Amino acid sequence: MGYCIISYATFETIRAMVAELSPRGMAYLDPGSGSYLLQLLIAGFLGGLFVIRASWDKIKAFFRKLFDKQANEGLDDE
Amino acid sequence: MSEERIGASFRDPSGFLFSRDGTLYRQVNLQYRRDYDHLMDSGLYDELLDRGLLIPHEEVAIDPLDTNQAYKVIQPERINFISYPYEWSFSQLRDAAFATLNILGLAIKHRMVLKDASAYNVQFYHGRPLLIDTLSFEHLREGEPWDAYRQFCQHFLAPLCLMSYKDIRLSQLLRVFIDGVPLDLASRLLPGKTYLQPSILTHIHIHAKMQKRSAAVEIDQIGMRRRTMSHNARLGLIDSLKRGIQRLQWKSTETPWGDYYSTFSYSDRSIKHKEELVIEFLEECNPSTVWDFGANVGRFSRLASGKNITTVAFDVDAGAVEQNYLKTIEDDDKHLMPLVIDLTNPSSSLGWASKERLSLVERGPADAVFALALVHHLAIGNNLPLIDIAEFFSKIGAWLLVEYVPKQDPQVQRMLTSRRDIFTDYTQEGFEKAFKRFFIILSAQTIEDSARRIYVMKRLEGG
Prior knowledge:
Chain A is mainly α.
């Protein structure tokens, strides 16, 4: 019974969102309302993850450069 | 003057392909003018060409096919052999998927986007996948999701997941579903452990469920509140799809023929002699195209492609084709195209009016055909009469290099262990008699250290 209520509530939420967020219909392909909605639902998460990963790559690159520089300086000292 | 519109080119109103006197052209329609000009002027076209991701073209001053709609006519460089996703091995489809995502990434950089993501828009050119549909780009619409997301998942991600997690033969679903594997079907077929993979969970399982739910509701477009897809979200989506595909693996030695040359067969002397006979044949008939049927990992195909001959290497075994493809990449072989084809059921014409995808035979003919260590599989393994086999080869190519494997050969003996020998015509005399109906036998030599024979044949005039 509980599952049915939750399931119905989820269905109604999706239905309301689809109604609000349906595509403008400019594409020659039908993008599919479910596919369209899914992208909007995960957009924030994927965008955030992308920024974190890109920043992390930059941090790694910075430290790699720093250590490489130190190692080279060490070699020069020798 | 002979001219016709190409059957596969009807979906997109931006333009279409047509052939005139044997040359292929693409008409760009007026409604696509703004997008085409931006593609050419923004630097995107040049960057895609530099990276080998788009077919080069030239604008030509010829009469368009449909003058009322025409903006320009372009002549794309010709692809030597058109292949389809259901003929590709795992890594070929995977590389085509990466190429599509890389193209999308570059397009976004230039404020454009791919408006479709069909695997049929990708072809192998000089051994590497590239986009052949120059009209696939359109201006980026700020804040909007990617229209081709579902198509990408159906054409690339879903079949790759099924091939990797379930069975390599599920690539054949692409033959049945012309617009890619339906996501609800992929979701049902994939094992439960794929729910633990974030990319597959999102882009296949949840995606399939969203489609089901959304299909059931009426869409009210009035008063809709807009959510947007940011630039980072768009790049994040590409990144997520790429990472998901990168994680997919498949081991090609799991199939029966993927390990053929290391587990069976010719002595060193006989295989060397066979190679010499193939080289002699190539020097004698000097073909511009070779179709090698039953090519396995492409050992003999490479003798042709090594001479810059356009060579297509067909095999029924996805493992052998996978190894062949990986070797072409390793060697940077620009003339060899390995493909998965079951010769007892070769690709037929498919799609709307059976004209969208060409059958294998329609994509011929080739100058020369190799049928090495193959005929016994067709004749004994599939009960095909020798005369039918000879007739089929005569329709494919003018020259034929064919191997006869006698009944006393251990390989044929193995095939006959579990069945009654009903093949009374399968003798050297029967073989020659059948092939002489369609070919002149120019030479026949027994392979050293073996009872197998190699025949060089030329198709009879009017045959």
